[in-house]
Fold this protein.
Amino acid sequence: MKTIDPIAVGERLARLRDYHGINQGDFADSVNIDRSSYSKIERGTKALKADMAFAIAERWGVSMDFLYRGRLDDLPRKMAESFISNRTN
C-alpha cells in the first residue's frame, strides 16, 4: 500500500489555492484551519488531517482522492485541465 506523501499533498493544495487566486491565509480561513498550521501543511511539514481535507474538498469542489492521491477523475473538467497543463512532474 502506498503512503501519503505530505509534500505532494501540499503541492496540490498550493495548486488548488492558486487556481482560485486566493492567498494562503484566506484559503486557511475559508475552511477554518489555523493559518500557521495550513502553511506547514502546504509546505509538507505537517500532515493534512482527514477532517481538514474533507472541509477543503467540500468548500473548494475537489475530492479527497485528489488531495491525498492526486487523482483528477472527479474534478471539474476545467480545473483538471488547468492542473494537467501546469503539472511540473
